[in-house]
Amino acid sequence: MESKQGISRKDFLKLSAAAGMGIAIGASGVGAVLEINNSTATSKSTSAVKEDDMIPLYGIHQPGIITPQQTYMYLAAFRITTKSKSDLIVMLKNWTKFCNLSAAGGTMKLSDNSLLPPADTGETLDLLPSNLTLTFGLGRSFFVDDEHDRFGIAQMAPRYLNDIPRMPRDNIDPAISGGDICVQVCADDQQVAFHAVRNLIRLSTGQASLKWMQEGFASGTPGKTPRNLFGFKDGTANELHLSSAGYDQVVWAGDDEPDWMRGGSYLAYRKIQMKIESWDRTSLADQEATFGRSKVSGAAFGAHGEFDSVDLSQQPANSHVALAKQTKQQIHRRAYSYTDKVDPRTGNVDAGLLFISYQRNPDQQLLPMLRLMQNKDALNSYVSHVGSGMFACPAGLKEGRYFGQTILEA
Ligand SMILES: C=CC1=C(C)c2cc3[nH]c(cc4nc(cc5[nH]c(cc1n2)c(C)c5CCC(=O)O)C(CCC(=O)O)=C4C)c(C)c3C=C
Ligand SMILES: [Fe+2]
């Protein structure tokens, strides 16, 4: 596959090899050598690879939060297995180098030694960066695990980082919930996204292990709100805070947080099964009343266009949108659909929504919504919450720094 400028990832790799220098990163468990050099991965690479499908890792905020949604997403959570702070730092340094390289469309060196496994798994060699973003978040247990200040950083914990409390209708499976570190990997090419997760797993060998991984998709026409598996436009209300001031109000953590968290955000995750078979037997009128919006246009009851304001007096009392509105809070939603196995007893498909929202204060914004919805939402007849997580995503990374540095070296 070739970019606009006629240079493929393979050619970029050759270019990088000529211009950059290999940095040995021992102790990674894979004996990897990263073919990376910052000037290669940023300035040079942008002229060599199609610019508009590359999202830099570095910036004021982490990528993948207010970035327009890519088509594919992996959400993965890791458990840190090492007790050594310095080993953890090595892993995070390796991850950072790898993420910067991958976001710029580069690949780790395959190998100088054919007797060793290649450092990179290789499946992106001919692929473009595809808007790859990697967004990191830290769970409460990163700071304090079972009351234990595992890396001497308990005092660095951000203000609102707590697991989402148990809700009345929860069916949460701990095996797909929580974790010390999570990474949301998004790209417009599924293989590019999976490659990133897979190599993060490899680079964590000996220091961390994968706890769970979720895979999602969000198909839609560019510029239009994607539809969820109930066939409704999902994400319309994000429009309400789509401005720099709006993001400051809704998404970015502020002055009441430790330095490293200011400009970061809290990622809330809920894996929500959607009973698509029973939904598909529901009348259109009941489906629309469940949300309080038209299925085709996405307009709220009593309104004409998708983005017209919601008149609460026109909404069924227990409709999903009415309940969200009643809280007078906003969150930034970035959900992906998922499909999984068939239940052999019923023939029903396990499908649903990987609900992801970003907010500056989950206690104030998300939890009141979740509580109200769990108690009253018309949607409850069709959904079941099976996975859960809350992660603090630090502010964006500065070039030359590694992920977590401001916490671990404070
Ligand atoms: C606690 C927060 C929320 C959960 C959990 C949640 C689950 C969920 N939502 C849909 C589908 C739709 N949600 C819509 C709007 C909407 N949802 C939330 C919050 C949660 N949703 C908010 C804050 C809003 C915005 C309300 C507003 O201000 O108008 C919509 C309508 C269109 C839109 O704005 O996106 C749909 C459709 C599903 C299917 C689901 C669980 C599976
Ligand atoms: Fe919703």
Distance between the termini: 44 Å
At the first level of CATH, what is the class? Answer: Alpha Beta
The number of distinct helices, counting runs of at least 4 residues, comes to 11
User: How much helix, percentage-wise, in residues?
Assistant: 25-40%
* Computed structural class: alpha+beta
Bound small molecules, which ones?
ligand L6N33NVT, fe (ii) ion
Major sheet: size, sense and barrel closure? Answer: 5 strands, antiparallel
As a whole number of angstroms, the C-alpha radius of gyration is: 22 Å
Shape: globular
Q: What CATH architecture would you give?
A: 2-Layer Sandwich
* H and E string: HEEHEHEHEHEHEHHHEEEHEH
Average pLDDT rating: 89
Number-wise, the strands total 11
Low-confidence stretches: 1-33, 36-49
Give the oligomer, counting copies of the same chain as homo and different chains as hetero: single chain
The share of residues in extended strands comes to: 15-25%
Q: What would the CATH topology be?
A: Alpha-Beta Plaits
Domain count: 1
Entry summary:
The protein is 26% helix and 19% strand.
Short descriptors:
410 residues, alpha+beta, Alpha-Beta Plaits, 11 strands, disordered N terminus, binds the ligand C=CC1=C(C)c2cc3[nH]c(cc4nc(cc5[nH]c(cc1n2)c(C)c5CCC(=O)O)C(CCC(=O)O)=C4C)c(C)c3C=C, binds fe (ii) ion
Write the layout of secondary structure elements.
Elements: H1 9-19, E1 23-24, E2 33-34, H2 38-48, E3 72-80, H3 85-103, E4 133-138, H4 140-143, E5 181-187, H5 190-203, E6 208-217, H6 244-250, E7 265-274, H7 276-280, H8 284-291, H9 320-326, E8 332-333, E9 336-342, E10 349-359, H10 362-376, E11 383-393, H11 405-408
Antiparallel strand pairs: 1-2, 3-5, 3-6, 4-5, 7-10, 7-11, 8-10, 9-10
Bound molecules: the ligand C=CC1=C(C)c2cc3[nH]c(cc4nc(cc5[nH]c(cc1n2)c(C)c5CCC(=O)O)C(CCC(=O)O)=C4C)c(C)c3C=C and fe (ii) ion.
Ligand L6N33NVT is lined by residues 228, 230, 232-237, 270, 272, 274, 291, 293, 310, 320-321, 324-325, 331, 352-353, 355, 366, 369-370, 373, 383.
